[in-house]
From TrEMBL:
This is MbtH family protein. Residues 2-48 form the MbtH-like domain. Coiled coil: none annotated. SUPFAM superfamilies: MbtH-like.
Length: 67
């Protein structure tokens, strides 16, 4: 990819994030979150919102075990 590539931020059902070229079809199991831009802009967004790297199902299991 070159520096002119536009990216979008995707999230899956486990609330994990990924950068994906904006002009390529979104793969099954992923949904756009509405953020698009340069690789650096999208990476900064992911760094801001993805504060817990554990998959959603693991977080839920751990929360239930603590309850």
């Amino acid at each position: 990819m070159d520096e002119n590539t536009r990216y979008q931020v995707l999230r899956n059902d486990e609330e994990q994030y990924s950068l994906w070229p904006a002009d390529i079809e979104v793969p099954a199991g992923w949904q756009p979150v509405g953020k698009e831009g340069t690789e650096a802009e999208c990476s900064a967004y992911v760094d801001e919102v993805w504060t817990d790297m554990r998959p959603r199902s693991l977080r839920e299991r751990m929360e239930n075990a603590e309850a």
